[in-house]
């Protein structure tokens, strides 16, 4: 297993380099001047110095190599200095946002807590709801619980999140005034009142995203359980006198989780990417909104860095899913 993990990590390096090059070239071909939003009061010579400082006057391959150096060497070194109080990165140029003129990774670090609090928590709630629903729906196929679960899943999966989000805002924020329609990212939890305010403003975006995620994962869980419940090893286990609880939760569930793990693992990078539309609807100041703002502002370093981070997360969680296959199914051998 360790050999497999190391081999996959080594193979991921050229894959990620190729992805980064493709993203860089696509953004390089995009129209517009990155310094187009600089105020007209800034003298031309100062604007030219800003362009040189950002590396805009050099060939694309030189800027690409410089960006790779900043991403893989300068930024880790900077965070190492922040943690251990050293000064190895002193004087080195970090990845700078065209819009904010601040280091890209500092801006991302400011947005991650909002994304994890809302989008990450909603994904966790969605998974915790979906797996039991999928198990019970498959075990009691065509029962009223299965029919109700199928109906709710169809609604959750077919209804766009921007529509369900607006519906919840109209009902619970405008009509009933139970919850705020706008997420306050400046709120700090210090006492019971602020904690309750945080819960109230999280309920609607978490509900919208959790319903969408649960609808998808519960369908996969149900289908996988139904496929395994009809297998010969299940009849053998029942014929040996094992209890129904042991057959379902120990044998069937373990094998049924293998394809579901892929869906869950590959959905995790979307958490860090943020549910872009939902963040826009509820004004959550997370990574999804940051990416949209950067695209509108032609902020190439920010878009390039965020997109590449998402690519790294997808490769990483694909590897984690493969490793979990071996843990859940001992028949799988990677050596």
Describe this structure in words.
There is one protein chain. With 335 residues, this protein is mainly alpha-helical. It contains twelve helices and no strands. Helix 4 packs antiparallel against helix 5, helix 5 packs across helix 7 and helix 6 runs parallel beside helix 10. The radius of gyration is 24 Å and the shape is globular.
* Beta-strand segment tally: 0
Unreliable stretches (pLDDT < 50, length at least 5) are none
Through-space gap between termini: 7 Å
The biggest sheet amounts to: none
- Average pLDDT taken over every residue: 82
- Element pattern in H and E: HHHHHHHHHHHH
Helicity, as a percent range: over 70%
Work out the strand percent.
under 5%
Class derived from helix and strand content: mainly alpha
Number of helices: 12
Q: Overall 3D geometry?
A: globular
For the CA atoms, what is the radius of gyration? 24 Å
Q: What features would you highlight for this structure?
A:
12 helices
Write the layout of secondary structure elements.
Elements (H helix, E strand, L loop, with lengths): L1 H27 L15 H10 L6 H25 L19 H36 L4 H15 L2 H15 L16 H38 L2 H8 L4 H30 L2 H7 L4 H10 L3 H29 L7
Helix pairs in contact: 1-12, 4-5, 4-7, 4-9, 5-7, 6-7, 6-10, 7-9, 9-12, 10-11, 11-12
